[in-house]
Amino acid sequence: MKLDEVTISRAILQTHAEIFSRYLELDIAIVGGGPSGLVCAALAAEEGRKVAVIEKKLSVGGGMWGGGMTFPRIVVQEEGRRLLDHFGIRSTLFQPGYYVASSVESVAKLTAAACDAGAEFFNLTSVEDVVIKGDGRVSGLVITSTPVEMTGLHVDPLTLSAKVTIDATGHDAVVAHCIKKKKGDITIHGESFMWAERAETNILDHTREIFPGVIACGMAANAVAGEARMGAVFGGMLLSGEKAAQIAQDQLNKM
Amino acid sequence: MKLDEVTISRAILQTHAEIFSRYLELDIAIVGGGPSGLVCAALAAEEGRKVAVIEKKLSVGGGMWGGGMTFPRIVVQEEGRRLLDHFGIRSTLFQPGYYVASSVESVAKLTAAACDAGAEFFNLTSVEDVVIKGDGRVSGLVITSTPVEMTGLHVDPLTLSAKVTIDATGHDAVVAHCIKKKKGDITIHGESFMWAERAETNILDHTREIFPGVIACGMAANAVAGEARMGAVFGGMLLSGEKAAQIAQDQLNKM
Amino acid sequence: MKLDEVTISRAILQTHAEIFSRYLELDIAIVGGGPSGLVCAALAAEEGRKVAVIEKKLSVGGGMWGGGMTFPRIVVQEEGRRLLDHFGIRSTLFQPGYYVASSVESVAKLTAAACDAGAEFFNLTSVEDVVIKGDGRVSGLVITSTPVEMTGLHVDPLTLSAKVTIDATGHDAVVAHCIKKKKGDITIHGESFMWAERAETNILDHTREIFPGVIACGMAANAVAGEARMGAVFGGMLLSGEKAAQIAQDQLNKM
Amino acid sequence: MKLDEVTISRAILQTHAEIFSRYLELDIAIVGGGPSGLVCAALAAEEGRKVAVIEKKLSVGGGMWGGGMTFPRIVVQEEGRRLLDHFGIRSTLFQPGYYVASSVESVAKLTAAACDAGAEFFNLTSVEDVVIKGDGRVSGLVITSTPVEMTGLHVDPLTLSAKVTIDATGHDAVVAHCIKKKKGDITIHGESFMWAERAETNILDHTREIFPGVIACGMAANAVAGEARMGAVFGGMLLSGEKAAQIAQDQLNKM
Amino acid sequence: MKLDEVTISRAILQTHAEIFSRYLELDIAIVGGGPSGLVCAALAAEEGRKVAVIEKKLSVGGGMWGGGMTFPRIVVQEEGRRLLDHFGIRSTLFQPGYYVASSVESVAKLTAAACDAGAEFFNLTSVEDVVIKGDGRVSGLVITSTPVEMTGLHVDPLTLSAKVTIDATGHDAVVAHCIKKKKGDITIHGESFMWAERAETNILDHTREIFPGVIACGMAANAVAGEARMGAVFGGMLLSGEKAAQIAQDQLNKM
Amino acid sequence: MKLDEVTISRAILQTHAEIFSRYLELDIAIVGGGPSGLVCAALAAEEGRKVAVIEKKLSVGGGMWGGGMTFPRIVVQEEGRRLLDHFGIRSTLFQPGYYVASSVESVAKLTAAACDAGAEFFNLTSVEDVVIKGDGRVSGLVITSTPVEMTGLHVDPLTLSAKVTIDATGHDAVVAHCIKKKKGDITIHGESFMWAERAETNILDHTREIFPGVIACGMAANAVAGEARMGAVFGGMLLSGEKAAQIAQDQLNKM
Amino acid sequence: MKLDEVTISRAILQTHAEIFSRYLELDIAIVGGGPSGLVCAALAAEEGRKVAVIEKKLSVGGGMWGGGMTFPRIVVQEEGRRLLDHFGIRSTLFQPGYYVASSVESVAKLTAAACDAGAEFFNLTSVEDVVIKGDGRVSGLVITSTPVEMTGLHVDPLTLSAKVTIDATGHDAVVAHCIKKKKGDITIHGESFMWAERAETNILDHTREIFPGVIACGMAANAVAGEARMGAVFGGMLLSGEKAAQIAQDQLNKM
Amino acid sequence: MKLDEVTISRAILQTHAEIFSRYLELDIAIVGGGPSGLVCAALAAEEGRKVAVIEKKLSVGGGMWGGGMTFPRIVVQEEGRRLLDHFGIRSTLFQPGYYVASSVESVAKLTAAACDAGAEFFNLTSVEDVVIKGDGRVSGLVITSTPVEMTGLHVDPLTLSAKVTIDATGHDAVVAHCIKKKKGDITIHGESFMWAERAETNILDHTREIFPGVIACGMAANAVAGEARMGAVFGGMLLSGEKAAQIAQDQLNKM
Asked: Annotated pathway, please (chains A, B, C, D, E, F, G, H) (predicted)?
């Protein structure tokens, strides 16, 4: 082993700066690396699109890691099982219609699939605003370093452009709220009471363009639509990510 | 979709309680889900051992997620490339002998491999002490819930037993420090200055039983031995995890 | 003494998982383990109902422990003394109509009575939302681990079902606020100025169903109704708990 | 209901001031209201001694409330079951020799028993020093208000006298550490590794006078003696509280 | 020196409990021990009224201690100099009409005068609500221990009664806000921009009954009235305290 | 009232800057404005010395404000009563030899007396180091702004000179610790257990020069000497302040 | 080197007090020492005006230090290059129309120029209110010490007068918000979405008097006007500072 | 103005990555951008060396910004005035031998000079360790992002190499402590008491190589040597920076 510390540092710095610079112009910017964002990233990248996942935290996976109340298991209903199989996530039958999978395995397999398909990941990166120009369409994201944001240091952000933006940020619906905070024409109804069956049924309807250039998926879709809350069942989440990828693909095809 | 919230909750609770209870008796307890711990878990489980990774945080992956100084890339030297390939992690040549991989992909692929091999994961779980009985050997771990520990609430821990314990907790060498804090016969020299080449060369020697029943690997091995520091190069880490799995296997074969 | 640590751990884990799973379907879910919640739990369980107290903190007892301004004594007026006697709480006459009891003894005796009557306790458990389905009635609670909530970790909750829910969470009226936050049809007037006599007189009127499936009692009842504040006198609180148990019993008898 | 707020306030203030003033001179000061302290308080008060429990927190019960890792159940072995029965705590057999009880019920019943026997409770009260005069014996405690201590406000403490002091403060061994901090002649070995069987067997030997005027019981006894750690099994704790009451009684009889 | 620690503790506890209990029924409750509150307390007590100052902090004096921007000097204009002299506070002429005094001396002399006149002080005591009964008049205060409030511990308050309440709590106008928070009929306009001359001229007009039973003085008077801000000049503050004492005296004479 | 804001600001700024600049050279620097420091300041200034009290907090008075355990009363024994009378502090007899005074009045009267005698006060000022030159004697203090210190901002301190320094900083013995931290030849034994009688008797012996140029008084004297702790009795404190003033006077007379 | 600590302290104290007192009456008060404020200060002082920059932090430079996302470089477009050259800040051409400069050099050179032109700096000084008298014009600022503000200590502010005030406080538009908070007649629209080109074009229009006596420049101008956000391009900022200096000069010339 | 957000972002990212990568191999790494570090950087760069200043904070200037006790003025004695003049910093004579300058101007001019001479600045960058290889000489620094360090996120550092390292980190002597923490052969005596004259005289002697490859200057030099403390006089600091540049130059010339 012949190793030089400065070469290691340069390998990291230069490789990343090159990739980061290249990915400042995207086909699809997926904000949030939870279950629906990961599915969307994997499927959109499989179609050959230039995709990046912008994740606020150090790790992707969102609320999946902790399962339900820290018991690291997730439940997927019959309809979503097809996607578990697609990504090689093993599951066991608990009761007819209810499959249980490991939450850790689920994150790992979805992320690995997105990487294999060619999606890029920018973690520790927060979205704090959007770019909207004369056509009134979201055409980019204003991004900052999460640790800088956490410490409240006064540092300006950077900007990336995206033909389509996916808001896959869960309950918080971060992109939608960025638009609303600046008085963009959007109504965020907020999640309603829990009613798993209803929420899982309707999530696909709510997975749609919520503002020119922005598609909501996963819990963000339900939060914007005022839909019921789901709980620790993930079938609808996975299917919503799949649908978001299809809508984005359709929009890009028309450009 | 026909769904009942209580059935979802029960599916999670009962499945996890059953698995947790079963895995309170382990062949190998791997403390720390960073790169060396994940490699060790994957390879030991491939050999058919009953293995669990005890991870303090919500997500596994340790220091790999952030790459170097938040640029999410890792460097692996020639010697370690074999293991990247084994786990399907793609890499590019930066300069002869230096390969660069995505840090996000690396975590995802190592974790997926450990899952596929049958390892279990207990995340949000902290080790705060060890069990040592008449034979002077570490035969179990005292574990607690990380959120409880973070909030300082006064709650008693639980205990699991393991025939072999792996300390894969990085710089902190948590298991070694638990032993030292209670005046067990162990010397922790602490990591020395950075000297990547030396550290990467010697880590395999330091991957060894550091106390009856406890094998150190990864940065914990170097920290206990007083070895030089490595920096953001991961070949030695991966190889150290591999060796720890071999030593554990040897010990178990002799029992 | 022959003892094995793993058996101890399993005894705790399996016993609790079994009870927890069983009590995910309740007759009466009592949210808040303060004085009115404990009285309600004890009396409802004495009637044979399947009852659980969901308590946010590690310990039950609420505001009673600290008496008035940390002097650990509580005052109960003539009308409430009957319930002190029912639960075996000793009191001394301060002045005609005013009885003083130990705040510590009061908590202990009420809790012991609830246990003896068969009520279950889930402490360190926070209610963050309710389940409402097509009939518009609260039919369950979305619960999370308090330490997880305190640390802000991103972990999904679980859900339990209850035929009747009691909001016994004091000033905060937690269940009522969960409903209001999600735009349920409920008005919370908030506690008015202090006027002990009026508040103690009217609390029984305010102990009633405040939303389909939810009965408020104790200070939560007064807070929802906009009633005056009570101060450190507890007769009305105890009587309100008693009345809530009766209303719940009536509702269950009609189902 | 005829009620006057000032009378309520005076009832609390005067009753407590009178009791507090009277209990500034004690036979036995029990520091710490966890399981061993509560058993000790109940049994010593049953013998007619003037006893007070000094508890730092708002609630007594110590580490029992949370059971093991927040599952609210405790395990008691065969030897300790006699005391569960004495205090009316219900338990179920998990496996021969292992009984499981509700942690909430255990706290409530022990506390209620101590109250019934005549012990007083001073909660939200912290011990920060001891009184030692010419005879070198601990003859009193320096106490402060816990909220004052938490906020770091500069306020002088008060003092109470006790013929015998019990250190029932768990791992922290607060009284022992007060003595050590001021260079009193005491050695605190600190708890050793977990080994439940050994710890439970030896705790009764360690329940003894550790400094003139101070008896350690419960985990404080093991912590001072350097004994192994116990885990979530409580038989030894209860028996240790019983023995501390007997030693205190013997010492008082000789005075 | 023959001294017993318990006697010292009893002397403090019993003397204070006796005084505290006696002063739970007041002629005048002055909330806030800043300059106007101290002047009011001194002058009202000189008239023989039963007066207590309720001060949130450990020390009285409010904003006077720090002078202007931590330079410990205060300025008093010609009109207020009479009161400086009345209380024996030395001052020097800076420029015609502007006198400078030591901020530390000012606090000490005002406080000493209030004590000499017979006013009582309850420091570390926060007002969190008011008592209003059928006549719609504030007839008492709900008080709590400041350290308890700071730590957020769940402890009930006590109550005292007062024929007249003075809100001398500065910008915060605490009593007025307690009334407003509970929807009492009061408008708090909030302090306006700084304009010392105007504010000093008008403060006496604003020193008046702002709600039945409550007189505002000092900066609280200006804050309620929407008057301009004063800055570090104290003449109006002192005169406002004087006027509040006169109004209170008038009201009491009429009862 | 004719008032100009800038003139008010200038009056404060210029008056204080002139006094501060003048008092950068002192006869006696008294660090700490608690009871012993205030007595010392009053008596030394009465003798015509140029004296300043350096107080870390916004208000002087130290631990006296809170009395014992927040009950605002202090006890003074027979021997110290003479000084209460000297400063006009009223007291009542609790039991032969024990006098009780108001803690608020005590602070106010001592401070007023020090002001009347001509002592200056620099509050919100922290001592972080001492000046020692070739003669090995403390000849000055390194002072900083307390808010700056609290916020951890990187700002350099200023320096004042004093012929004699009094360490009246209580338990913390701040000046002594500054000397020790920099390896000055001083031993700080730390306060011993509580034993009021012994501590009150010996405090006058311990009130002495503890390092060339530094006299300790009050609790700092006992803390340095390793004397017993006193509790909430203040006679010795006042007498110690008196003695420190006498020693300082003697030293200055010899210069 | 012959040096005396007290002389050093006096040199600092007296020099600063003299300058501070003199600069309590200003021609132009510039609030905020970021890029536009520094340019404005330099150019206004070059015209001979009495100018002071009031900066909240310890250091001036605002958001320039961190460049974009902590990469310490700033971009200036063609139009602004003239000012870079004016202040001697070196830049390199990245692409036609885009110049890159060092963020550290930019701060240093702008600040040095302002100093050379005669502007004064009051750092660690926060503006918390404004002075408005009968003419309805802002004629002064209420200032406080930032560390005092950060620690929440209760200390009164001082006041300075200014013929013209510049709000150069960036997004926060601090002066504008002070006016609005006190119900002054001003509308703050808040920054809109990012659109660099538009924002850079319009900023000069928005650099204008926003309230009698107050001129907004830099991001504060855009924030008040509801203009688009700019990102890490600084040409408009510099030009805005230049224009604010011209408007101020015009206003002063007319007085 | 024709502007594109992505081009602005790329200009910043690519320019900085190129400069950062190039400056990973330095002649001289100056850790700490306070007065001595800035002088050293300016003078060494003037000699044509490849120099970078590694600054932990967002802004350079260290303790100079706040002058003495937040009065933003610094004192420089006769000997140092030459360097003030060299960097164009204006000063006024306070008393023979004592010159006063603006602290803000001093930082700006020193920084501007270092930039003009060609030094690079890496701010928000913390040094957490050193590189030492077979020759026992410090040959590089382990650096991390300050915001990451502040948030405690688990992210690996990068490494840069330097032929000579300057420890200009003030009291903290960060580089020296990195070496000591890892048991390098270095003794850090720590600053002694304040004695400005002595400290200013001796600082040049202490400005020397303190470990192979590391030169200390400024307060770090005195801290390592155990020299007296200086206070707010800066002549020695500036001269020490000058000497450090000369020593570094000598060492480089010999390589």
From this structure: Cofactor biosynthesis; thiamine diphosphate biosynthesis
